[in-house]
Amino acid sequence: MRLIIKNNSSEVGEYVSQVIKKRILDYFKNRTDGRPFVLGLPTGSSPLPVYKKLIEMYQRKEISFENVVTFNMDEYCGLEAEHPFSYHYFMWENFFKHINIKKENVHILDGTAKDHEKECAQYEEEIQKAGGIDLFLGGMGVDGHIAFNEPCSSLSSRTRIKTLTRDTIIVNSRFFDNINQVPTRALTVGVGTIMDSREVVLIVTGHSKALALYKTIEEGVSHMWTASAIQMHKKAMIVCDDDATDELKVKTVKYFKEVETNSEY
Ligand SMILES: N[C@@H]1[C@@H](O)[C@H](O)[C@@H](COP(=O)(O)O)O[C@@H]1O
Question: Global pTM?
Fold first, then answer.
C-alpha cells in the first residue's frame, strides 16, 4: 500500500486527479478492443477538489471521458435522482454535467428501487459486464467506513442495502436541512466489490479522519474499520493531507514522505 501525504486538501485533489488522468491516458495508449475505462466514484466533501481538477483538465482538453464508464459507490434509499440531497444530484451537479461523459455510461444505484435485492444484484452484473472496475476512488467516514460499509460489515460483502449507524447519520446531517431528513438506509457496493477493482485510491483529509486513518493502516484488518480491508489489496493508495496524519506514528509519516518523494503517479 502507498501513502501519499500532501499539505492540504487542494494538493490532495491535484495529486489524485493526476493519478486518474495518467491511468486513463495510459489505458487508451495500448487499447485496441474498444473496452472503456471503468471508474468507481464516491460522493462527499473529500472528492470535490478532485472533481474540480478533472473538470479543469477536461476544459483544457487534456483528458476526455467519452470512453469512460462510471459506477458510483452508493445512494440513499428513498431519494429520487432529482432530490437535491441525493447522490445522483450531487454527481451530476459537481462532476458529470461539466464533462463529456455519456449519460448511458453513468451508473448510480437507484435508491427508490422497490426490489433492493434485484437492483443490487443487477449492479454487480453491470460491473462484470463492463469488465470490472479499473480504478475505484473512495473516501472514508470518520469511523473508517468505505462507501456505506458501516462498522461490522462483512469484508467480503457485495452490493446490498445497509442501515446507517447513528454516527454516520449525525455526520452526514451537515448536507441536509436537519437530521430528521437523513435517510436511515442506503444501497452500497460491498467491501468485496471494491476489493475486486484493479486499483483502489482513497482520499482522506482533515483532522476528523485521523483516528480512522490510523486504524486503517497501523492496526490490523478489521470489520470495525472497513477501510482497513485495503491492507489486503494488491494495488492500493491512500492520499491524505497533513491533518489526517495526526494519529500516525512519526516514523510512519517520515517513512512514507521519504519513499514518495519524487515518486511517479
Ligand atoms: N457514503 C459516503 C462515503 O462514501 C464517504 O467516504 C463518507 C465521507 O464523506 P466526506 O468526504 O464528506 O467526509 O461519507 C459518506 O458516508
Answer: 0.97
